[in-house]
Structures are given as C-alpha cells and as structure tokens.
C-alpha cells in the first residue's frame, strides 16, 4: 500500500497494524496466563502428593524401649491345682517414651487386668511352653486393649516374662 499522509504532513498509521499488535498482545497474555494456571495448579497437586509421600517416607520410626513392671504379679490358684501360687514379673517392648508414660500412669488398671487374667488360667496348662506362650499373647491383648481404650495411641510389641515361678 502506498503511504497515507495526513493534512499536517505526518504519516497515518494503518489500522491493520494496530489490530495485529493488539491481537498479538492478547494472545501472549492468554498463553502466559494459561501456562501460569497450568503450572501453578498442576505443581501444587503434585507438590502436595510429593510432600505427603515425603512425610510418610521421612517419618522416623518410634524408638523401641522396655517398660519394666517393677512389682511381680502374684496369684493363688484354686484348690486341686497342681500349683498353689504363681508369680510373674514382666517387661514390655514398647514404641516411644509417651507409651511408657501412659503405662506408668495406668499401671494399676493394667496390673488388675493381668491379675484377673492370670488367676483365670489353669496351673497345669501354664506348666507347658504352649500355655506360657498363650498367656503372653493374652496379656499382650489385655494391655493393648487398655492402651487403645485409654489413649488410642502407642504400641506394645512384645511382653517378656523376666520371672515365672509356680509352686
């Protein structure tokens, strides 16, 4: 096209050129806005998942500690049993110091439940290895039930007999 001149002698700008510049700017803004939305929204969802996975993977396993029930559990067996008395001293493998604090705080309830459990057993059954293993499992279940009932957290991994005497 030929150059258009105004009456005052200056060039007149083409309206097509102005439209092309405006369209290019609008497209550039739309593309950059879309890209920003995509990256911000897409990365945050992935970032949350990654942070969640990292937190699970990075979770430090709780320290395993022993809790020793200082006083032995002493029971009398019913008449006619092969043994008249039983005495057991226990230690527990627990996860975390907060579990030990809980066990110390609730030791009277735990001791009561273990006394009731042990006195309900037959002494002839407890003389066998299987009977002692069964008693350990029952005791673990009883202590875990108290733990869940009273605090809802913490874990007891094992119960160990540090002393087991029947007379």
Description of the molecule:
With 167 residues, the protein is an alpha+beta fold. The chain is 55% helix and 19% strand. The protein is built from five helices and four strands. Strands 1, 2, 3 and 4 form a four-stranded antiparallel beta sheet that branches. Strand 2 and strand 3 form a beta hairpin. The longest helix has 44 residues. The radius of gyration is 38 Å and the shape is rod-shaped. It starts with 14 loop residues before the first helix and ends with a strand.
* Biggest sheet features: 4 strands, antiparallel
Question: Total strand count, please?
Answer: 4
The radius of gyration is 38 Å
Structural class: alpha+beta
- Following the backbone from N to C, one meets helices and strands in this order, namely HEEEHHHHE
How would you sum up this structure in a few lines?
With 167 residues, the chain is of the alpha+beta class. Helix content is 55%, strand content 19%.
Task: Detail the topology: elements first, then pairings.
Layout: H1 15-58, E1 64-68, E2 73-76, E3 85-95, H2 97-105, H3 107-119, H4 123-126, H5 129-150, E4 155-166
Antiparallel strand pairs: 1-3, 2-3, 3-4
Attribute tags:
single chain, 167 residues, alpha+beta, 4-stranded antiparallel beta sheet
